[in-house]
Design brief:
The structure is a homodimer. By secondary structure, chain A is α/β, with parallel strands linked by helices. Helix content of chain A is 33%, strand content 13%. Chains A and B meet through helix 4 and helix 6 of A and helix 4 and helix 6 of B. Chains A, B: This is Flavodoxin family protein.
C-alpha cells in the first residue's frame, strides 16, 4: 500500500509530530511505502490564487475551479501543487495529521485542500461522493486537541466531534470519493502526562496495524438522488 | 455601529466582492462606521507560526495559544495580527464575506481566524460560548457557493448548510461569545444570470437594512453545564 501523510503543526517537537513519526515507522514496518508532506517544513503556500496557473483559460476573470480543470489537463498548474497532486494520486491511503484549530484544520492544511484537490481530477460534474475522482482510496484523519473527551458527544457542550469535522470528513474526503475511516483522536494533549501520551501512541499504533478491520463512515451515494440531485424515495 | 467586513476572494471583480461593496455602501448609508479587511488585497499571511511573537514565553517549544496569551498581554504579537485584532475589538458587528471552498472558508480566511482570535482576549479558560471574550458583538456570515439550494437541507445530498458551517458558526463565532445571525447565502453563483445576481444583491441589501430584526442562532450556554463542563439536568 502507498501512504501519503500530510502533516501540519508549527512545532517540530509536538506530540502531533510524534503521531506522524509513529505512523511512518509502523506503516513502513508493515511493508507499505510512505511519503510525508510536512507542510510547515515545506513552507507550503496555502493561498489559492491566480498565481497557481502558468496559463489562464480566462486571464481577465479568475474562476479558480475552472482554471484548475484547464491547468490539470494541460499540466500548467503550479509546480508545488502538481507535486502534491502526484503524491496524492500515488497514494492508496491519505492520512491528514494535525492539531484542531477552531474545530477544523489549521489554515496551512486547509490551503493544501483548497489547492491540491483540483477540479477535473478529484471531482467535477457528477463525480463526487461515491462517484468522486479519488474513489478506491482511503482516508484517515489523525488529530490532537485541547478539549476533554466528555466535552464532545450527544448532549455534550460541543456536540459530537464528527459533526464539527463534517466539512473535512464528508465535505472534502468523502466528497472526492475516498473511503473515510473513523478519525483517530488524542484528547486534551497539552495538559496530559507523559504516560497518557504513551497510551495514545500505543492506541494509534494498534489502530494503524489493524486498519483493514475498520468500518468506514457512511455517506450519501449518488444513486439515492435523481439527475438533478433531488432525493429519490423521499417518503420511503 | 462599528462594522468590520473581512473579505476573502481571489478575484477582485467577483460577485462576492459586489456583496462586500454593497454592504459597505448600505451600512454607511445607515450612518454606521465600516472598515474592510480585504485579505487577498492585503496579501494576508494565514499561517500561524512562531514568527507571530516578538518575544516567546517558551522559545524552545511552541504552544501557539499560550504564546498568544502572553503576546496579547505584552503587546508583543506580530503587527499584522495586532492591527486586525484592534479592528475586531473596535467592531460591534463582524461580517465574514467569502466563497465556500470545501464547505468552509478559504485558507486565507481560516488563517485570519487562527491568528487574530487570540487566546486570552477572545476566549480562554471558562470564557467561551455565552461567556466568550467577544460577547456583546454580533457576527454575520455572507457567502457565495456553487451548489443549488435544493442540494442542502434535511434529506438533501449535502445535508443542511448550517451543519457544514458548524465549525465557523458554532465552533468559532459563537465560541468567542458573538451573537451569530443566520448566514446570508447566494446559491449557484457561477452559473446564474445577471438578473438572478441582482436579485441576490437586492435581498442582501434588504437583509442588511433590517439586521436588528434578525433572530440570532441558538447555541449552548455555560450555565447548562457543571464546573467540569458535564451537562446539568441530563435527563430533564
Amino acid at each position: 500500500m502507498n501512504v501519503l501523510i500530510v502533516h501540519a503543526h508549527p512545532e517540530p517537537q509536538s506530540f502531533t509530530a510524534a503521531l506522524r513519526d509513529l505512523a511512518v515507522e509502523t506503516l513502513r514496518g508493515q511493508g507499505h511505502q510512505v511519503q510525508v508532506s510536512d507542510l510547515y517544513a515545506m513552507n507550503w503556500n496555502p493561498v489559492a490564487s491566480a498565481d497557481d496557473f502558468a496559463a489562464r483559460e480566462n486571464p481577465d476573470y479568475l474562476v479558480y475551479a475552472l482554471e484548475q480543470r484547464e491547468g490539470a489537463k494541460n499540466q500548467s498548474i503550479a509546480a508545488d501543487i502538481q507535486q502534491e497532486l502526484d503524491k496524492l494520486l500515488w497514494a492508496d491511503l491519505l492520512i491528514l495529521n494535525f492539531p484542531i484549530y477552531w474545530f477544523s484544520a489549521p489554515a496551512i492544511l486547509k490551503g493544501w485542500i483548497d489547492r491540491v484537490l483540483v477540479s477535473g481530477i478529484c471531482y467535477g460534474g457528477k463525480r463526487f461522493y461515491d462517484q468522486g475522482g479519488l474513489r478506491g482510496k482511503q482516508a484517515l484523519v489523525s488529530l490532537t486537541l485541547g478539549g476533554r473527551e466528555h466535552m464532545f458527544g450527544e448532549g455534550a457542550i460541543h456536540g459530537p466531534l464528527e459533526d464539527m469535522l463534517r466539512p473535512i470528513l464528508r465535505g472534502t474526503l468523502a466528497y472526492v470519493g475516498m473511503e473515510v475511516l473513523p478519525p483517530f483522536v488524542a484528547w486534551h494533549v497539552p495538559y496530559i502526562s507523559a504516560e497518557a501520551r504513551e497510551d495514545f501512541l500505543r492506541a494509534y499504533q494498534a489502530r494503524l496495524e489493524t486498519l483493514g478491520q475498520d468500518q468506514p463512515l457512511q455517506f450519501p451515494r449518488l444513486e439515492q438522488f435523481d439527475d438533478r440531485l433531488y432525493p429519490l424515495n423521499r417518503n420511503a
